[in-house]
Write a structure and sequence with these properties.
Distance between the termini: 18 Å
Number of strands: 7
Structural class: alpha+beta
Order of helices and strands: HHEHEHEEEHEEHHHH
CATH class of the largest domain: Alpha Beta
Strand order of the largest sheet: 1-2-5-4-3
CATH topology of the largest domain: Beta Polymerase, domain 2
Number of domains: 2
Helix content: 40-55%
Radius of gyration: 18 Å
CATH architecture of the largest domain: 2-Layer Sandwich
Shape: globular
Largest sheet: 5 strands, mixed
């Protein structure tokens, strides 16, 4: 198990990731103090308006594993709740996903029109203490469901950079938080096609074998 760590400061996580990106792309416009304020006020608004949201993605994963780097905030939300956030400028939206900007902060929304996203929002939520405030976040099984659900599509798209990130997220979560992988796959089954289910089963088999080898090597060291 991982050691207890200090409360995660979401604003500083996003700030650090943005700094790294700005170093790579000179001339990018960003103001770090404004970014910290934006994160704090965003979650204050969600709380004050009593909107049903779930924090997912890289920030949520940081509650369970260390070292994850991300500059985006990912939330499960329904369309009705999204309409109650006029402060957010929506830059792209389709049936299941939306992307928005709030005071320079990039937000990715997983919309509950997608049955799996609604399922995670209903069944896999825990209150997590962050620096900003206590936030509704996905559990380890919820994060695993979301990552595994996305992987077959990323393979088809040939998006191997994101494939690597998502597979690493799954492997790291499983390494530090051993889970019933058969139960995870069974829970995911109603939400995916047979083709995607077969791909997910192959991914899980490969990752669990890699984790087992790593643990054996660690024990023998």
């Amino acid at each position: 198990m991982m050691p207890t760590q200090a409360r995660i400061h979401i604003g500083k996580v996003v700030q650090y990731a943005r700094c790294l990106k700005a170093q790579q792309w000179q001339g990018a416009a960003w103001t770090m103090d404004n970014l910290l304020d934006a994160v704090g006020t965003l979650f204050a608004i969600l709380h004050q308006r009593k909107l049903k949201y779930v924090l997912v993605g890289g920030i949520a994963i940081l509650q369970y594993v260390q070292g994850r780097n991300t500059e985006d905030i990912d939330l499960i939300l329904n369309v009705t709740a999204l309409r109650k956030l006029p402060e957010i400028t929506i830059t792209n939206q389709d049936e299941y996903f939306a992307r928005g900007n709030y005071q320079g902060l990039q937000l990715d929304f997983l919309l509950t029109k997608n049955p799996l996203f609604a399922h995670v929002q209903k069944h896999h939520v825990v209150q997590q203490p962050f620096f900003e405030q206590t936030i509704r976040s996905a559990t380890v099984p919820g994060l695993l469901l979301l990552k595994l659900y996305a992987l077959p599509s990323l393979y088809r798209q040939g998006d191997f950079a994101r494939v690597g990130i998502y597979e690493n997220d799954v492997a790291t979560l499983l390494f530090y938080h051993p889970s019933d992988t058969q139960a995870i796959v069974s829970e995911l089954t109603p939400f995916v096609s047979r083709q995607d289910l077969a791909a997910i089963q192959d991914i899980m088999l490969d990752l669990t074998q890699r984790i087992a080898r790593l643990k054996r090597n660690k024990d023998q060291a």
